[in-house]
Structure formats: structure tokens, C-alpha cells
Amino acid sequence: MNSDTNKLIQDLDDISILYVFSTLDYLLKDVRVIYLRDVEIPIPPFVSIDAKEGDMTSVPRWISRILSEEGLIEIHDEDHLSYIKRALNRERISSNHVLSTIDPDFYVRVNNYLRNIDEKERESLIVSLNPFIVSRMQKIVKLSSSSPLVPEIEEKLSLEEKILYETFYEKTFNFKKLVLKLE
Description:
The chain is α+β, with helices and mostly antiparallel strands. It has helices at 3-10, 14-28, 61-69, 80-93, 106-115, 119-144, 151-154, 159-180; strands at 30-35, 39-43, 47-51, 56-60, 73-76.
């Protein structure tokens, strides 16, 4: 790595680094697409697409974005807004001390969706997301102040929230050790 890349990585905290890698992982995953025209893209050994209008195949998400912007394909992905609203609703109806389950890449998916909608929709969704995030953070703080991360909790958290939980637990544990003179 060059010095600029090293500096960039050194300036990131653990959650930011994890988020970057989670985003890359998300972009590398395949998504179903339908070709709106004949497409031939030979870039060996990385990409080789030879499809006819109407064909349905899977391509990595990063490629689908480019092809979609060029009007060559239609992406057939799940309904992101419904997916997000289901997660918001599950969290809203869960009790004060119970975390609802979200996917490990939930926030990456949310940000991907936010990037692709108009400003008015984006603002509205962000307003809805704020109480969701506050609720989850409050629960993570409560749980992490009394217990290390256990599998039953870990499976309910996004990748970023796992780091947050572990960080809160470590800081809380160190604080207790300091003020209670524990060894």
C-alpha cells in the first residue's frame, strides 16, 4: 500500500473500516438483472458479459450499477423500502430491552438505497431512521454495560453495531475496574 492509502486507513476508526469492507462485500455480491438490449462486454479476466435483450442473469452489484446507469439493464432486487420499513417496524414494536434482528449488512443496504432515491424521499426516510438508530444504540449501551457480547445478541446486530457493542463493553468494563479498583 502506498503512504496515502496507509494514512487513510490509519485515520479511520474500527467501525468505519468495517463499514468500508462491508460496503465492498455488498457491492461484490451478485444481483439478478434483465438485459434491456444486447450487451457484449469482454474485459478478461475480470468481466465477460454476452447477453441478449430479455436475458436474465446475475452480475456483481457494482457492475449492475454501471449497466443500469447506461440503460442496459433492469435490476431485479428486493424492494429496499419495504425491507427497511420492516426493520424499522420490528424495532419499534420490540420492548425496551430487546433488540430486533437486522442483517449484518443492514446499514450498507440502507445507504445504497438512500443514494438512489430523490431528495424528498431521502429526507423522509432519514427522519424515520433516526429514532430507529437511537433506540438500537440505547439498547446496545444498556446491554453492553452489563454483559459481554453473546451469540444471542450478536446475531441480532449489524456488523457496525457489533463493534459498537464491543467498544461500549470494553469502556464500561474499564470504567468499573477503575472506579471500583477491580483487578
